[in-house]
TrEMBL record:
Pfam families: EAL, GGDEF. Residues 159-412 form the EAL domain. Residues 22-155 form the GGDEF domain. It comes from Novilysobacter selenitireducens. InterPro entries: Cyclic-di-GMP_PDE-like, EAL_dom, EAL_sf, GGDEF_dom, Nucleotide_cyclase, Rev_trsase/Diguanyl_cyclase. This is Bifunctional diguanylate cyclase/phosphodiesterase. CDD domains: EAL.
Length: 419
């Protein structure tokens, strides 16, 4: 079932709901520690694992409850007739406990766990989309607070971003492209820039990217947001490359758009419109996001790579089973997660890990980029380790695309002041 179909189903249930019928709960359940299983036993085994988890969740629900599989390892449970918030929390705890024992998958046992986020009608919303959004927010809180299950807490949550506000901002081209450069650590020249979407709303003010991007992924707006990002970035890239023909650009890509059949055609068409070569563009996908649907991710990335686009694995080292899946994906670049770089000066283990990632990337013929560089000492250490590129506030903060392009030197061999 798609999210749109799920919203429609919940909306129909809400229409028939009477206040005297008690509380209606919406529970989001996602499997954890599943990537290792798929990588050890094959991507096909992941489908069987998802089905086994669906059955396990169903086994602990009441007859009136319904569970729907939304993604490969994602489930939404509707809990009508609850007595209140505590009853909803107990339902979440029951689902969590159901995964204390490994799941039987064929002749194997899969030790997985779940994280749960719950919202309740009417206290956490009266509309289907809002209830699902708040269940997602509660799920995020469970991850952040290292809890197995969390109930939505309005007091600890930023104000809800209206769907229409983001929708109109995308359609009206009211988002902005900011660019953050990548520094070549051998030549000390700026050789590329990462494109970052920014949004300042008239009523909401500046909206953090992680908030509006998550909203876009949850509501289906990620497709128009991706189209906007690609075209807006390429428009600026065309202008920048008129000054420096060697300058390259990175664009963040959500795997939520991998299911679109015309994704590759969209990107190649935009490249043609703006006359930017595919070799000048690298698409960044986070390590953990790649593994949400490994088979689809692999197929789509291979298609994009065949068109000459670069593929970067972002936040490398922060996800699961990095070494196990690297051989599958046609990546051309690794971006070391900033959590390793921030400890570089003070933690010997971080130094060893970063050095190992750099060596690994080079053995696999990939460029290695360190993100989150905040000081000269870390930059020098990375250069000594043989890291190819770096980005971070010490080098340059993200700035509006027009400002970045206006600052480009006409001479392509001009060096960075960081030398």
């Amino acid at each position: 079932m798609t999210r749109t179909e799920l919203v429609a189903l919940l909306a129909r249930q809400l229409e028939a709901w009477r206040e005297g019928d008690g509380v209606l709960g919406v529970m989001l359940v996602r499997l954890q520690r599943v990537r290792e299983f798929g990588l050890f036993y094959g991507f096909g085994a992941g489908d069987a694992l998802g089905a086994a988890a669906l059955a396990r969740i169903g086994s602990v629900l009441r007859p009136q409850d319904t569970v729907t599989q939304l993604g490969l390892y994602e489930y939404v449970v509707m809990l009508p007739g609850l007595r209140g918030h505590n009853h909803a929390a107990l339902a979440g705890a029951r689902v969590v406990r159901a995964f204390d024992e490994p799941l039987p998958v064929g002749d194997r046992a899969a030790p997985v766990s779940v994280k749960v986020g719950i919202s309740v009608h009417p206290d956490h919303g009266r509309e289907a989309e809002q209830l699902l959004h708040n269940a997602e927010t509660a799920y995020g809180a469970s991850l952040r607070d290292s809890e197995d299950s969390a109930l939505y807490d309005a007091a600890g949550t930023p104000p809800l971003i209206p769907y229409d506000a983001l929708h109109q901002a995308i359609l009206g081209n009211r988002l902005q492209v900011h660019l953050q450069p990548l520094l070549d650590l051998r030549t000390r020249r700026i050789i590329a820039a990462e494109s970052l979407a920014r949004w300042t709303d008239e009523r909401l003010g500046p909206v953090a990217p992680d908030r509006f991007i998550i909203l876009a992924e949850e509501t289906g707006l990620i497709s128009p947001l991706t189209r906007w990002s690609i075209n807006a970035t390429l428009r600026h890239a065309a202008r920048a490359r008129a000054v420096d023909p060697n300058l390259c650009f990175s664009i963040n890509l959500s795997p939520r758009v991998f299911g679109e059949r015309d994704l590759v055609a969209q990107i190649t068409s935009a490249l043609g419109i703006w006359n930017v070569p595919a070799s000048a563009i690298t698409l960044e996908v986070t390590e953990s996001a790649l593994m949400e649907d490994p088979k689809l991710s692999l197929r789509r990335l291979e298609d994009l790579r065949m068109e000459g686009l670069g593929i970067s694995i972002d936040d490398f080292g922060a996800g699961y089973s990095s070494l196990a899946y690297l051989k599958y994906f046609p990546a051309t670049e690794l971006k070391i997660d900033r959590s390793f770089i921030s400890d570089l000066r003070d933690d010997r283990r971080s130094i060893q890990l970063v050095r190992s990632i750099i060596d690994l990337g080079h053995h696999l013929k990939m460029r290695v980029v360190a993100e989150g560089v905040e000081d000269a000492e870390s930059l020098g250490m990375l250069a000594e380790m043989g890291c190819d590129c770096a980005q971070g506030y010490y080098i340059q903060r993200p700035e509006p695309a027009d400002v970045f392009i206006d600052s480009l030197a006409p001479a392509p061999n001009q060096t960075s002041p960081l030398h």
